[in-house]
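Supplementary Methods, section 5.1.

A reviewer requested that the exact input to the structure prediction be made available. We therefore reproduce it here, unchanged from the version used in the analyses.
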Amino acid sequence: MSIFSRRQTTASAPAPAVGTGTAVAEATPWGVALDPALRALTGRWTIDRPHSRIGFSVRHAMVTTVRGAFADYDSRLYFDGARPSESRAELVIRVASVDTGVEQRDAHLVGPDFFDARRYPEMTFRSTSTVHEGGESFRMTGDLTIRNVTRPVDLQLDYLGSVVDPFGYERAGFDGTTTIDRTEWGLVYNQRLKAGGSMVSEKVRLQFDISAVRSTV
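The structure derived from this sequence is encoded token-by-token as follows.
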């Protein structure tokens, strides 16, 4: 996922100034002005897993929400601060790392009724386009593959800021969200309720709470 925008915060080690001077903001092909400070964020980034969360939430039995996350994944990110449309991202997630806080439920999720981790150990997201929608908001479109089924999804991304942490690492953060219909990826298992409705909602909200660190290679 790309790392965006103009805000910069400080930590124990002050972040270098970006976007100073009188440079004029450029406009994207969609007519939205880009802050010159975005240029300072151009480069390769990696998601810092201990300080990030790739998760989901889904309604259970029509009355409550179950939340979970994936602990094991790889990421490759590139952001182009002058041309956000050139930004790109790739995530490879090991589905067996799913954690909802209930061991029995996690075992069901990795089994044949849902992810079928033995046959399909990974799900992936690969971006196909990025659009700056204004301010700290971006939209990234990409291909999401689950159980060897690939379908396009749109992620709404909001930039949170950038900082140099006390260890000298440059970080940038953002939140990303999208909602999918799991049945479109072959995740069709369910049980009907006597009063109507289903045990597990077909709609699943994906959530990306990301702290990314600039790569040095």
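Residues 68 and 100 are 4 Å apart (CA to CA). These observations are discussed further in the main text.
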